[in-house]
Specification:
Blueprint (H helix, E strand, L loop, with lengths): L4 E3 L2 E7 L1 H19 L5 E6 L3 H9 L6 E11 L2 E10 L9 E9 L3 H11 L5 E9 L12 E5 L5 E2 L15 E4 L5
Parallel strand pairs: 3-4, 3-6, 6-7, 7-8
Antiparallel strand pairs: 1-2, 2-10, 4-5, 9-10
Bound molecules: guanosine-5'-monophosphate.
Length: 182
């Protein structure tokens, strides 16, 4: 990994190496298989950021499953905008289904909290919340994440699906904003 990368006007330094990402996402996929292996779960992937995580997760899920995608966003630049916008909604019947909600990162928890409210009335058989990253210090909304890849400090990160103004999503590891480090 290079020691520094520039996205637009900002410098980022390595936080989680590609190998560690791979190991952890594969573990998580297997753990989900252990929990839901015979249930044909429906993975609901929250776009855009979770696309790469979701791909690795289902690759390690060695049983029948289905996938659908919703597009929600609350971030602009390096901070949360405070409102959750849906630009692509749920197009699959979720009633009676075992759902696995796949999120890239839980920051304040606003996005997942809002999404859980939209599915609450549809009576799924079960809901498992999975997030690649979580910033425990930043969480404000009362949601319970069932499985997390890594807990990180309350700093802005990019890579592995996460962007800084659309750049950085293709990076295979996670990078943190240099100016937020001590
Ligand atoms: P929350 O709604 O939990 O506050 O924020 C969740 C969403 O904000 C994530 O799905 C992600 O799109 C975005 N987000 C939160 N923290 C970061 C971060 O450090 N980097 C990037 N690129 N996006 C973030």
């Amino acid at each position: 990994m290079n020691m520094k990368i520039r996205l637009h006007d900002l410098n980022f330094v390595p936080m989680i190496a590609e190998d560690d990402v791979r190991r952890r996402t594969s573990e998580m996929g297997k753990e989900l298989f252990n929990r839901l292996g015979d249930k044909n779960p429906l993975f609901i992937v929250i776009l855009n950021g979770a696309f790469m995580f979701a791909a690795d997760l289902v690759r390690a899920y060695d049983a029948p499953c289905e996938m659908t995608f919703v597009r929600l966003s609350s971030y602009s630049g390096t901070s949360s905008s405070g409102t959750v916008t849906t630009s692509m909604g749920l197009d699959t019947n979720i009633s009676g289904r075992h759902l696995v909600i796949v999120e890239d990162i839980v920051d304040t928890g606003r996005t997942l909290h809002a999404f859980l409210q939209t599915i609450a009335g549809h009576q799924p058989a079960s809901v498992t919340l999975v997030s690649f990253l979580r910033k425990p210090e930043a969480q404000v909304f009362p949601i319970q994440v069932d499985m997390t890849g890594f807990d990180i400090e309350n700093k802005f990160v990019a890579g592995y699906g996460l962007d800084y103004n659309q750049l950085g999503r293709n990076l295979p590891g996670v990078w943190v904003l240099e100016s937020q480090l001590p």
